[in-house]
Specification:
By secondary structure, the chain is of the alpha+beta class. It contains three helices and six strands; from the N terminus they run ααβββαβββ. It has a single domain, classed as Gcn5-related N-acetyltransferase (GNAT) (Aminopeptidase).
Length: 130
């Protein structure tokens, strides 16, 4: 993982996860392990997205910018997967992330699932819809 990626992850960690039972070093190790085992990473500007699977494509974002950057990166990743998968999904806790649905290139739905840390909400994207 390069220094730019670490910086993005660290800023996101400090904003959203700093009171957790783990630290930045743990996050870096988990991501390195994920990538070593074939997990994929997409980076656009201030956003790093880890993703895996075919359909659904599951993805998780680290953002050191704002909502616009996050939306652009998610749309770019999903556009690159058209024809490769029919559906994508992400999980999150912050209800403000739900606003992404208003700017999504793809039709999406949100539901509250309350499935634990980082899994309060589920957002599904239909990649066949455009």
């Amino acid at each position: 993982m390069d220094n730019n990626t670490k910086t993005i992850i660290d800023v996101d960690f400090d904003r959203h996860h700093k009171n957790r039972e783990y630290d930045r070093t743990t996050v870096h190790s988990l991501i390195d392990n994920y990538l070593d085992k074939g997990g994929e990473m997409f980076t656009l500007g201030s956003v790093v997205i880890l993703h895996e699977g075919v359909s659904p494509l599951e993805f998780h974002c680290f953002n050191s910018g704002g909502g616009r950057e996050l939306t652009e990166a998610v749309n770019a990743l999903l556009k690159s997967k058209v024809g490769l998968c029919d559906r994508a999904v992400t999980y999150y806790d912050n209800p403000r992330i739900s606003e992404l649905a208003n700017y999504s290139y793809f039709p999406c739905s949100i539901k509250r699932i309350d499935a634990g840390i980082d899994r309060t909400y589920e957002m599904n994207f239909d990649l066949r819809g455009m």
